[in-house]
Amino acid sequence: MGIFSGRFSLLQCRLPHRSAYVRLQHAVFHVLEADNGGPARVVDFTIFGVVLLSAVNLAVGDVQLEFFFISVFAVEYIIRLWCIVWHRDYSDGGFKARLRYATTNVAAVIDFIAIWPTLVVMIIFGEVELLPIFRLVSRLIMTGRRFPAMRLMGRVMLRSASQLVSVLVALAVFWLAAGYMMHTAETRLPGGNHEQFGSIGEALWASVVILTTLPSLEVVPGTIAGRVVAGFIALLGIGLFALPAGILTSNFVDAYQQARATAGQMVFSACRVQYARQRRQSRWPMANS
Q1: CA distance 58 to 138
Q2: Which residues contact residue 100 at a Cβ distance below 8 angstroms, ignoring those fewer than 6 apart?
Q3: Which residues contact 15 (CB under 8 A, 6 or more apart)?
Q4: Are 218 and 242 a contacting pair, CB within 8 Å?
Q5: Where are the alpha helices (DSSP H) in the chain?
Q6: Is residue 259 within 8 Å of 2, Cβ to Cβ?
Q7: CA angle, 245 as apex, 244 and 248 as ends, to 5°?
Q8: Topology (CATH level 3) of domain 164-242
Q9: Which pLDDT score, from 0 to 100, does residue 182 have?
Q10: CA-CA distance, 85 to 93, in Å (whole number)?
Q11: In the chain, where are the structural domains located?
Q12: Cβ atoms < 10 Å from Cβ of 190
C-alpha cells in the first residue's frame, strides 16, 4: 500500500455472507477507493486518460466528444456516490452519509463543480463554447488529484500557504524599496540612466529585470551608486527566491513522514469499521448460519 495514497485495503477483512447487491457495491468500492492493486490501477489510469483527452478536446471543440467525456465523469461520480457507504467515514450509510460525502469531501466537491455545471449547460444550450476557462481549470484540477503524489503536493501547498504569503510580502517590500533606491540614485546623481529609471514605475520594472536576470532585457545603471544597489538587489534576490523552495521542501518531508506514520493504522481501522457495520445490520445473515 502506497504511503501517499488515502486509500486503505480491505483484503484482510473477512466479512459475512451478503446479498449479490451488497457484494457488488463492496467490490466496486474496493476498486475505486480501497485498493491499490491491478484493477484499481487500470481504473485510475483509464479515468486519467479520459481527463487528459477531454483537456485536449477543449482546444478541438468537438461537441460530441465533450458530451461523451463529461458523461463518463458523471457516471463515475454517481458510482462513487453509490458505493461510498463502505468508506469508514461514511459507514452509517443512507442519504445523509452520501450527502455529507458530496458536500464535505474535497475531491467530491471538485468533481461536482467540474462535471455538473458543464453537463447542464450542454444539455440546455447544446454547445461547449460557454465557460471555457472554467472547464480548462477544472480539468487540470481533476488531472492533478488523480495521482497520490499530486494530492500530497496539494496538502503541502496548503500547509505552506501562510509561510509563502509571508515570503511574498517580504519580497514585495524589498521590490518597492529597491525600485525607490534605484530611481533616487539614477535621477539625483550625475550620469544617471534617466531613460530606464526616470520614474518610480520604470525603476520598479528595472528592479524586476535585475531580480529575475531576464536575458532578453538589459538594464544598465549609469551611476556607481545605482550599480551598487543593482548588485545588492541581484544577490539578495537569489536568496529571496530560494526561500519558497526551502519552505516547500521542509513541509514535504514532514508530510511524507506523517503519511508513513499513519499508513500502518489504516487497514486495522477499516476492518474494525466493517465488522461493526456488519453487526449493526442484522438483515445480512451470518455465514454458516
Answers
A1: 12
A2: 90
A3: 26, 274, 275, 278
A4: no
A5: 20-29, 38-60, 63-83, 94-104, 106-125, 132-144, 148-159, 161-188, 194-197, 200-212, 224-280
A6: no
A7: 85
A8: Helix Hairpins (1.10.287)
A9: 82
A10: 5
A11: 20-151, 164-242
A12: 6
User: Comparing C-alpha atoms, which of 90, 269, 248, 243 is closest to residue 155?
Assistant: 248
Average pLDDT per block of 10 residues along the chain, 289 residues long: 41 54 84 72 83 81 83 90 85 83 84 82 71 70 67 79 87 85 81 77 80 63 81 78 83 79 56 60 48
CB 5 within 8 A of CB 36: yes
In our burial notation (b when 16+ CB lie closer than 10 A, e otherwise), range 19-57 reads eeebeebbebbbbbbbbeeeebeeebeebeebbeebbeb
> Cα(178)–Cα(157) distance, rounded to whole angstroms?
29
Cell numbers that stand for 267 in this block: 487497514
Task: Give pLDDT, residue 79.
Answer: 92
The length of the chain is 289
pTM for the model: 0.55
The closest alpha carbon to 143, from 263, 224, 10, 44, belongs to 44
- Separation between Cα atoms, residue 82 and residue 102, nearest integer Å: 11
**Single-letter amino acid, residue 128:** V
What is the C-alpha to C-alpha distance for residues 195 and 189, in angstroms, rounded to an integer?
Answer: 14
User: What is the per-residue pLDDT for 275?
Assistant: 57
Q: Which amino acid would we find at residue 82?
A: W
Contact assessment for residue 259 and residue 4, using Cβ atoms and an 8 Å cutoff: yes
